[in-house]
Write a structure and sequence with these properties.
Blueprint lengths: L12 H13 L1 H9 L1 H7 L6 H16 L12 H8 L1
Helix pairs in contact: 1-2, 2-3
Length: 86
């Protein structure tokens, strides 16, 4: 052991925000992610570190457990979504 402290990987909040926006706006991505989240992330070019991937899985599980409609974006216009996403 060299005395250095190993830090957990940094969570890239901007990347997770981008991923959330994609999930809300892209029906094909959403459908694919419901079937195979990890594979879909990889196919779309997302290389998440273990901490980020765990957060994405926990978030998806929390939404499902709460009965949140993952296809909620169909209820909103593009302009309304843009306002919601800032």
């Amino acid at each position: 052991m060299d005395g250095s402290i190993e830090h957990p990987p940094e969570v890239r909040v901007d990347l997770l925000r981008q991923l959330a926006e994609l999930a809300m706006s892209d029906e094909v991505f959403r459908d694919a992610a419901l079937e195979d989240l990890d594979g879909t992330l990889e196919r779309y070019g997302y290389r998440l570190n273990p901490e980020e991937l765990a957060l994405v899985h926990r978030f998806r599980t929390s939404l499902a457990d709460a009965g949140i409609d993952l296809d909620i974006v169909r209820r909103y216009s593009e302009q309304q979504l843009n306002r919601l996403l800032g």
